[in-house]
C-alpha cells in the first residue's frame, strides 16, 4: 500500500513535501466560486519532491454540472498527470443527502476529461454515492478516533459496500489527514490517465413497446406533443394526477409513456435521465 496526505489552504505548506509519503492530494476548488490560493504552490512543490499527485473538488451543492465544469476549468492542466477526486461532505453543502448529485458531477467531469474521479465520503454516508460504484474508486473516511496521530493502521473493519473494497482509506483527520492507497504506483498513474478522451457510448435505437399501465405523478409534469423534452407541452398535470398509458419508449436518456388522447397521443416522462421514477407505476 501507498501513503497519501491530503492538503488544503490551512494545512502547513510542509505537508506537500512530507517525508515518507508517496502521494499528495491537493484541494483545488469548492463550489463554483472558490480556488484554493495554495493549490498550485503545493502541487508544484510535491511534484518537485518526486511525489505522485492528486487534486480534489469540494462540493458546495449548487449545481453538479456547473461545479464539475468549474473544477475542470481550473485544473485541466493537472488532468492526465494527477488523479482527480470529488469531496462529498455535509458541511457547507446545500445538497447533502441527494443521492444523484455526485453521480451527475462525475459524469460531467468524465465527459470533459475522460477521467473518472475518486469519491471521498464518510463511511456512514456511502449510500449517497453508491450509484457511482461501477465507475469510480472509493476514498472512504473512517477513523478509530479523532486523536489517532500515527501512520500505524488501526485494527478496524471499514465499510465500503457496494464497493468490494476502498481505493483510498483516510484513517486520521486531526493534526494530519493520513491515508493509505490500495494500489501500486503504476495503478495510481493508470487512474490519473483514464482514457485519452471521454468515451462515446454507442447509440441504441429506441423503439416503442406495447405496454399498458397506470402512472401516478410524484411531481408536476408536462404532457408533450412529441417524446422529446423540448417538444411543446399539451398540458401540465399536478402531482397526484393519474395517467393511463398504452406504450413505453426507453430513449437515450428518459423513459417515455404514451397516452392515447382524443386527437392522437401525448407523451410524458416516466423516468428521468438518471433512471429515477418520477411517479408510481401501477
TrEMBL record:
Biological processes, Gene Ontology terms: carbohydrate catabolic process; cell wall macromolecule catabolic process; peptidoglycan catabolic process
From which organism does this entry originate? Answer: Lactobacillus gallinarum
Claim: Ribosomal protein is one of the keywords in the record: no
* UniProt record similarity statement: Belongs to the glycosyl hydrolase 25 family.
Q: Which PANTHER family match?
A: LYSOZYME
Instruction: Please identify the protein, giving its name as recorded.
Output: Glycoside hydrolase family 25
Task: Extract the GO molecular function terms from the UniProt entry.
Answer: lysozyme activity
Keyword line:
Glycosidase, Hydrolase
Amino acid at each position: 500500500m501507498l501513503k497519501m496526505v491530503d492538503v488544503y489552504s490551512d494545512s502547513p505548506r510542509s505537508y506537500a513535501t512530507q517525508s515518507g509519503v508517496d502521494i499528495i492530494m491537493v484541494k483545488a476548488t469548492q463550489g463554483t466560486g472558490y480556488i484554493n490560493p495554495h493549490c498550485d504552490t503545493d502541487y508544484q512543490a510535491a511534484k518537485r519532491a518526486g511525489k505522485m499527485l492528486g487534486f480534489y473538488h469540494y462540493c458546495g451543492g449548487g449545481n453538479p454540472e456547473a461545479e464539475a465544469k468549474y473544477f475542470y476549468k481550473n485544473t485541466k492542466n493537472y488532468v492526465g498527470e494527477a488523479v482527480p477526486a470529488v469531496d462529498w461532505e455535509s458541511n457547507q453543502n446545500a445538497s447533502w443527502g441527494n443521492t444523484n448529485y455526485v453521480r451527475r458531477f462525475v459524469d460531467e467531469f468524465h465527459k470533459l476529461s475522460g477521467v473518472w474521479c475518486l469519491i471521498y465520503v464518510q463511511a456512514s454516508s456511502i449510500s449517497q454515492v453508491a450509484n457511482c460504484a461501477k465507475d469510480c474508486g472509493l476514498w472512504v473516511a473512517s477513523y478509530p478516533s479523532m486523536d489517532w496521530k500515527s501512520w500505524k493502521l488501526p485494527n478496524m473493519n471499514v465499510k465500503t459496500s457496494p464497493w468490494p473494497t476502498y481505493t483510498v482509506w483516510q484513517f486520521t483527520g486531526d493534526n494530519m489527514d493520513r491515508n493509505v492507497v490500495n494500489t501500486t504506483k503504476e495503478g495510481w498513474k493508470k487512474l490519473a490517465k483514464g482514457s485519452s478522451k471521454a468515451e462515446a457510448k454507442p447509440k441504441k435505437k429506441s423503439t416503442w413497446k406495447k405496454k399498458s399501465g397506470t402512472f401516478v405523478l410524484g411531481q408536476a409534469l408536462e404532457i408533450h406533443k412529441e417524446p422529446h423534452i423540448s417538444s411543446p407541452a399539451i398540458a401540465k398535470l399536478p402531482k397526484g394526477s393519474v395517467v393511463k398509458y398504452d406504450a413505453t419508449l426507453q430513449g437515450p436518456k428518459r423513459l417515455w409513456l404514451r397516452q392515447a388522447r382524443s386527437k392522437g397521443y401525448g407523451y410524458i416522462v416516466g423516468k428521468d435521465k438518471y433512471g429515477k421514477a418520477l411517479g408510481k407505476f401501477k
